[in-house]
Amino acid sequence: MSQDSPNQGPQLREHVYDGIQEYDQKLPNWWLFTWYITMVWFVIAWVAYYQFGVGMSDEKNIQRAMDNIAEVQKQELEQINDDKLWEMSRDEKIVAAGAATYNTTCVACHAADLSAHLAGAKLPGLPLNDQEWKHGGNPTQILTVVRKGSPDITKGMPPWEPQLGLQRVVEVVAYVLSKHEKGEPITLAGDSPLKAK
Ligand code: HEC
C-alpha cells in the first residue's frame, strides 16, 4: 500500500503516545470544500465589513434597537393622561423612584413633607401637600409645571425635564400625587394665572 496515495483508506501512523496510535486519513471532499468556502467567505466578509463598511456593527444594531425602545417609551410618556398618572401614583415602585428624585431635587424648595415650610420658615417653593394649586391641580397640569417650569420663570421654579428627563419627571409627579386622593377638591391659588382665563 503506497503511503502517499490519499485514496488507500486510513493509514495508521507510526507515532505512538501512551499506547495510542492515530490514523492519517484524507479529509472527505465535502468537508474540505466547506472549509475552503469558509476561508474565501472570510476574506470577502472582512473586506466588505472592515474596508468598505458594508453592514452594521453589533454596536450600531444594539444602539438602533435601544433608540427605538427609548422612542416608544417617550411616545408613551408623551401621551400620558390624568388617569394614567393617578394609576402610577398608586404603584409602589414608581412612587419610590419619584421619592428618591424628590428628596434630592425638590426638597430644598418644597420641603421633605411637601409643605414648603421648614421649622416654621417658608421655603421658596409652593406647598404641594395642600389642595391649592397655582398652575392647576390636575395630574397633567402638575406634570406640565414640573416639566416646563413655572410660566413665569422669575418665580424660581425651573423646568426639570432637561435635567431629569421625562421618565423621572413623571415618577416625581406620581410621588407628589401619592400624597393626594383622586377626586379631592382642587382650588386655584389667589394669584393663579389660570384664574384670569
Ligand atoms: C429652586 C427652588 C425650587 C425647586 C428646586 C423646585 N421647585 Fe417647584 N416651585 C418653586 C417655586 C418658586 C414655585 C412657584 C412658581 C410660581 O409661582 O409660578 C414652584 C411650583 C411648583 C409646582 C406648582 C405648584 C402649584 O401650586 O401649582 C409644582 C407641582 C412643583 N413646583 C413641583 C416641583 C418638583 C416636583 C420639583 C423637583 C423636581 C420642584 N418643584 C423643584 C420652586 C422650586
TrEMBL record:
The chain crosses the membrane at residues 30-50. Pfam families: Cytochrome_CBB3 (PF13442), FixP_N (PF14715). Residues 93-180 form the Cytochrome c domain. Keywords: Heme, Iron, Membrane, Metal-binding, Transmembrane, Transmembrane helix. It comes from the Bacteria. InterPro entries: CcoP_N (IPR032858), CcoP_N_sf (IPR038414), Cyt_c-like_dom (IPR009056), Cyt_c-like_dom_sf (IPR036909), Cytochrome_c_Oxidase_Subunit (IPR050597). One of its GO terms (molecular function) is heme binding. SUPFAM superfamilies: Cytochrome c (SSF46626). PANTHER family: CBB3-TYPE CYTOCHROME C OXIDASE SUBUNIT FIXP (PTHR33751). This is Cytochrome c oxidase cbb3-type subunit 3. It comes from Prosthecobacter debontii.
